[in-house]
Structure formats: structure tokens, C-alpha cells
Write a structure and sequence with these properties.
Blueprint lengths: L2 H11 L4 H7 L6 H6 L6 H10 L4 H6 L4 H13 L3 H26 L1
Length: about 110
């Protein structure tokens, strides 16, 4: 998937238009169409767009987050929880893993 397609997907997911994003960032609203025609965005523009859309440049370029980035996002959320909420999440994870292991055990039997 090309970076422009990933940007458009993120815009749609966030109920934003390309025009609004570009104007918010101080860019010409025709920039997306120049990228669609094959022009490549600068690294600085990609970084500003990634920050605006709350993703990494890697995500815009590949459509995938690196494992470290995923873990950091989860950790940021985890730190907002109190101990009781964390215990609930840990129990849910344990339950999901146990179910998965039972299913795998049945498949290999």
C-alpha cells in the first residue's frame, strides 16, 4: 500500500478530510493530488502528518507499526489504570490465553 493510501485510510478512520489536515498543517490543499500523481512527500512533511494523525512515519510508509511502538502505546494506556483495573485486564488476558491454549490442544490431539 502506498503512503498516500495509508494517509487517506487514517483520515477516513479519524473522520477528517485531506483538505482540513493540510490546511491545519499550513500546506496547500492540492498537496495530496500531487502525491497521487507520483510526487514524493519530504521527510519533514511525512513527520508532521504522522504527528497530526497520531501515528509514526514508519506506519505511514509501511502500514504497520513496529513491535516497540505497539508496546509503548499499550504501556501508556496501562499507566493510566489503577491497580484494580490492571488486575481486571490481567485476568482477561489470562482467560484469553487459556482459551487459546485449550483450542490449540484440541487441534493437535
Amino acid at each position: 500500500m502506498r503512503h498516500i493510501e495509508i494517509i487517506e485510510k487514517l483520515l477516513k478512520k479519524n473522520n477528517l478530510t485531506a483538505k482540513k489536515m493540510l490546511l491545519d498543517l499550513g500546506y496547500s490543499d492540492s498537496l495530496i493530488s500531487t502525491w497521487k500523481k507520483g510526487s514524493e512527500p519530504s521527510a519533514i512533511k511525512l513527520k508532521r502528518i504522522a504527528d497530526y494523525l497520531n501515528v509514526t512515519v514508519d506506519y505511514i510508509l509501511t502500514g504497520e507499526e513496529r513491535k516497540e511502538e505497539k508496546l509503548n502505546k499499550i504501556l501508556e494506556k496501562w499507566e493510566k489504570l489503577d491497580n484494580d483495573e490492571r488486575a481486571v485486564i490481567e485476568n482477561q488476558i489470562d482467560t484469553i490465553i487459556a482459551i487459546k491454549e485449550r483450542k490449540q490442544g484440541k487441534l493437535s490431539s
